[in-house]
Amino acid sequence: MYYSLANGLGLVIVGILLYFNFSRNDFQVKRQALNELFIATLAYIMVDIPWTYINHDLLPKTVYTQVISSYILAIVGYYLISSWLVYSFTISGKTKFDFKKFWKVVRLVNLGAALALGVVMFVIPDFWVVDGSMRLLFYILVYGPLIITLVFISIYSFIRSFQKTHYARKREYHLNAFGPLVLVVFAVFQIINNDLPVLVYGLIVSMVLIFLSVVLFQNTRDPLTGLNNRNQLNRIITNIGKERPIDDKYILVMIDANCFKSINDKLGHVKGDEVLVLIAKTLVEVSNRYKEKPFLCRYGGDEFVMVFKDTQESEIVDLQDLINDELVGRDVRVPISVSVGHAKWNGDMRDYETCFRMADENMYENKAILKNK
Fold first, then answer.
1. Average pLDDT for 108-133
2. Would you say residue 152 has pLDDT above 90?
3. Phi and psi at residue 130, in whole multiples of 5°?
């Protein structure tokens, strides 16, 4: 009964996650990979039902029914873990070509493993069942590689989360790293006590964690550049405003791409998007050079905002030159540069709009200077 309730709950929850993910606005490849992972999870929960009924004598329990149900569960387990692996490689936004190519390799490996396991299990089925239960060797051969893959996904995600190039998706990688560890822990408890549906609950928790990471990213991140979005800027500013104001503790920086409209008009919006992504990457790299790394977001269109804390004004006077020097070295066919303006802010919400407007005006003054050069 406990297994039936757990499996039913799992089908409902993961089914809901799949439904919402289909309508979610995100990178097509990433959304497709997550759909595949949820489908694989649903498949595993469904095939776990007859396997459980057979092993608890609620369905005919023979050598062949045990071997067949265990084999199917193992194959779907391979499908589940490989789907998770593929999803982990698409978090950063892999191209569709890379996604298809990688999936082909993974599916070929799955097919080879399924054929090999099938030959071994069905040629000598009596070997795998001892005293009405599957041999320990079966669980070692099947679930050993699955656990190793889960650990690899976790380590890979943790490493990616600390890389500067993936700073924007740090939280998403962190949650994707915790998911496999949660499942491994639940799997160990399942092995210790096979009478409770611990593994199914582990799957539910892991999938919810993954979906939460995606939703959190989508609510706080710009989908094109991966930077914080304007909503996140508002949250940060509101939180700062709740602190006790300290004179000139913060510096607001406004950044705007030069001649961006002409790039869109002459080369199209696809090229314009590429330019915005390039500027965003450059801003992340420049931000990482500061001891106190600033908050960085895409404000809208071709505008970006930085909020420095505990940073002297003298440290950012050459920020515009630093960014443009980096952009000059980029391998692009069009000249790209930005204009930068800044203003001090004491953290008082009553002065925020005035300071923000000052930074914006300062930026347009610098834009005019660059234009007249």
1. 89
2. yes
3. -130, 120
Q: Is residue 103 part of a domain?
A: yes
What's the whole-model pTM score? 0.68
What CATH number did the domain enclosing 312 receive? 3.30.70.270
Q: For the segment 159-213, what is each residue's pLDDT rounded down to a tens digit?
A: 988 875 565 577 778 888 888 998 888 888 877 776 777 888 999 999 998 888 7
Q: What are phi and psi of 200, to 5 degrees?
A: -60, -40
Q: Which domain holds residue 136?
A: 2-220
Domains: count for the chain? 2
Classify 268 as helix, strand or coil. coil
Cα distance between residue 240 and residue 310, in whole Å: 13
Residue 225 within a domain: no
Task: Tokens for 51, please give them.
Answer: 């396997």
Q: What's the chain look like in SS3?
A: CHHHHHHHHHHHHHHHHHHHHHCCCCCHHHHHHHHHHHHHHHHHHHHHHHHHHHHCCCCCCCHHHHHHHHHHHHHHHHHHHHHHHHHHHHCCCCCHHHHHHHHHHHHHHHHHHHHHHHHHHHHCHHHHEECCEECHHHHHHHHHHHHHHHHHHHHHHHHHHCCHHHHHHHHHHHHHHHHHHHHHHHHHHHHHCCCCCHHHHHHHHHHHHHHHHHHHHHHHECCCCCCECHHHHHHHHHHHHHCCCCCCCEEEEEEEECCHHHHHHHHCHHHHHHHHHHHHHHHHHHHCCCCCCCEEEEEECCEEEEEEECCCHHHCCCHHHHHHHHHHCCCCCCCCCEEEEEEEECCCHHHHHHHHHHHHHHHHHHHHHHHHC
215 and 234, same domain (yes or no): no
CB atoms within 10 A of CB 263: 21
CATH label of the domain that carries residue 77: 1.20.1070.10
My answer on whether 174 and 216 are in the same domain is yes
